[in-house]
Structures are given as C-alpha cells and as structure tokens.
Amino acid sequence: MDLLEKLKEKSTSVTLELKKPYRGLTSVYGTILDIDKGKHSLLFYTVDFHVVEHFNLKDIDHIAAGNQLLSFIFVKED
Fold it and tell me: What are the per-10-residue average pLDDT scores of the chain (78 residues)?
C-alpha cells in the first residue's frame, strides 16, 4: 500500500494545498473518497463547498493530515 492509500484509509480529513486556486482557494479541507491511479486524480469531498470534486495529483502541492505533511511529486510534468 502506498502513502496515498494509507492516508485515505487512516485519515478522516486532510487539507490539500493546491498549485492552482480552486474556487478562489489554494487550500481545501475535506476527505479523500477515492484514488484513481489511472487518471492520476483524487475524488475529494470538500467541506468548504460541500461538493465532491476530482483533483489532478499534479495540481496538488502537498497534503496535510493532522501533524503530518506529505510533500512529494505525484506526476512527472513534461
């Protein structure tokens, strides 16, 4: 199981720090619902807007969960 899967299984809520703003925010709080490795995206419930959205992993700078900070490159950019 990789780090992202562990985070999904063990964390009830996380903060996504985004490279590009989402609805004006660069920090989105919520829950990871699913991980689509084929499309390199997260299905994420946003608490701020009460909607479910797909976030491309390459658009995420890092993920914060409790006192842990996960910062790594998800997708190689060409």
Answer: 78 88 94 91 93 94 73 48
Please give the pLDDT value at position 68.
60
Q: 57 to each of 4, 14, 15, how far by Cα in Å?
A: 11, 14, 13
Cα–Cα distance for residue pair 42/60, rounded to 1 Å? 10
Closest residue by Cα to residue 60 from 47, 50, 77? 77
Give the distance from CA 23 to its chain's centroid: 15
At 59, give phi and psi (nearest 5°): -90, -5
Q: For residue 46, list its beta bridge partners.
A: 30, 51
Q: Which amino acid appears at position 40 of this protein?
A: H
Residue 34: Cβ within 10 Å count? 11
What is the C-alpha separation between 25 and 39, in angstroms, rounded? 23
